[in-house]
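Lay summary. Proteins are chains of building blocks that fold into shapes, and those shapes determine what they do. In this project we predict the shape from the chain. Here is one chain we studied, written as its sequence of building blocks.
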Amino acid sequence: MSSAATSPAGPDHLWSVDEHLEDILSTVRPLEPIELQLLDAQGCVLVDDVTVPVSLPPFDNSSMDGYAVRVADVAGAGEEFPAVLEVVGDVAAGAADPVRVGPGQAARIMTGAPLPPGAEAVVPVEWTDGGLGEGPVSGMRARSLAPEGAEGQVRVHRPAGAGAHVRARGSDVRAGALALEAGTILGPPQIALLAAIGRGRVRVRPRPRVVVLSTGSELVQPGEELTTGQIYDSNSFALTAAAREAGAIAYRVGAVADDPDILRSTIEDQLVRADLLVTTGGVSVGAYDVVKEALSDVGDEDVAGAGVDFRKLAMQPGKPQGFGSIGPDHTPLLALPGNPVSSYVSFELFVRPAIRALMGLPDVHRPRVRAVLRSDEALRSPKGRRQFLRGSCTEGEVSPVGGAGSHLIAALAHADALIVVPEDVESVEPGAEVEVVLLG
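And here is the predicted shape, written in a compact code that computers can read:
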């Protein structure tokens, strides 16, 4: 990728959300395709259309355990006057040369077995006496226990029409049809289809490798004891989980102390396994904003390669942001604020689309809907800022969850949406229609 754009109106330019996102998406490029074994391709994006080389199923086969019959032979069958047919053999799944069914004959057939020549339908075993000469049975006896079950006679107590209980050749998908389109994310059903049509390998864009670093000397890892002035590091866990949910292979790096040299060294160590680097914290205007200090003035010859542009956005939460590229391969880096809610909202708006762009997906955005605001009071928003409030959305209505503070992480755990208040709106009354970003 090329280096990040610089502010169009100088360092004091207030970027819009859309400008910042456009800069990211115009810079990040999809990863190069690779060929992978099916199971290794799970979660990856298909590069080429896949067509079906053989029909599924490839032959007419039984959908039931029962007897393969000719329709005319069971046309008048009933409980009082069953059709009595000669059993000429077994047809098991995988049978390559099944027996032929002639007039007055039947073949015992298993689920998935090919319909034998001459047969037109399958009657379930429950419609027969199972060859035992008594009333209807509930199932077949195992062949090892009753080998004679494939011979003798069977009484059929109900008629069956042509094709009854038969899965016709090509009824799932026909040869030459489009199986999967390019751009499809390969989940378990898609991998099952590829295996079913005989594809052992497939060309995909790999899942992006995302490295998440949190910064701050006050951060302590969960499970350790807190001392005065310390807090637990939650951002790196939230962002790593969010990156995985977005489709990436994500690595979490323990909190980095407020030391520019340590941060540069840590980044250098992580570049070998990163398609995208995400930092959280240290991007504002404080005296200890280490990310900004470490990455603002680096040159092309340095570890942090092409440089990172730190900017202010007309949004709340998440005003301070950074974007650029680092290292010899110009690995993209997004620097997010340190407040938990600011960090997570920034991830959803900017990092998630970048991950999806690396995957080569045509649509990188969360779905957005219109919903009616249900609130006890009007929502207030600062003029000139696009505000993103946590919300709970259901059945066309959305309610705020928690306050507007960027540190209120407890409320975030109960939100499944972001309520969007545009830059030119300072108040939204209850009952008004609002735009909602769905997070689930």
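What the prediction tells us: The first strand starts at residue 14 and ends at 15.
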